[in-house]
Each structure stands twice: as C-alpha cells, then as structure tokens.
C-alpha cells in the first residue's frame, strides 16, 4: 500500500530468535516490550490505512508513514539483542 517493493529478509531478522535467546534478561524484556509496542501501533495504524483505502482514497502516504514508523521501531528492537563487543585492549 505504501508503494514500496517487498523487503528482503535480512540477516538481522533471520537470526533474531537465536540472538534473543542468548541476550541478557534486560535485553529480552526490552525487546519483548518493543514487540508489544509495535503490535499496539500497527493495529490501529493498519485499520486507519484500510479505512482510507475502503473509501476509495489514496492511502499510500499514510501507509508509507506507518511503514517508516514500523521500520524504525523494528530496527531498535533488533539492535537491542545485538551482541556487544568487548572493548579491545590498547
């Protein structure tokens, strides 16, 4: 609906479950809350986009805005479970 090509599933998403399982408790809690927040944002957002579209209006701008919000939130959740590299000794 946003006029974008389908996105390829990246490595960050593909290994999410494994990294989530290896993450610390606080990271898991924050990532889980982030996923809940994304779901809470998407439900009414998709309903609104579909309502605009059902009226025969162009919903592409609204869909694109919702996609951008989702993308930023998803990147944040993915970053929460990225392994932290230990500092290198000088």
Please, could you describe this protein's structure?
69% of the residues lie in helices and 0% in strands. The protein contains 4 helices and no strands. It is elongated, with a radius of gyration of 17 Å. The mean pLDDT is 86. Helix 3 (25-54) packs antiparallel against helix 4. The protein is mainly alpha-helical. It has helices at residues 11-14, 16-22, 25-54, 60-80.
Q: Which bin fits the share of residues in helices?
A: 55-70%
Quote the average pLDDT: 86
Termini separation (Å)? Answer: 51 Å
Structural class, by secondary structure, is mainly alpha
User: What quaternary form is this?
Assistant: single chain
Summarize the structure.
The protein is mainly α and about 90 residues long. It is about 70% helix and about 0% strand. It is built from 4 helices and no strands.
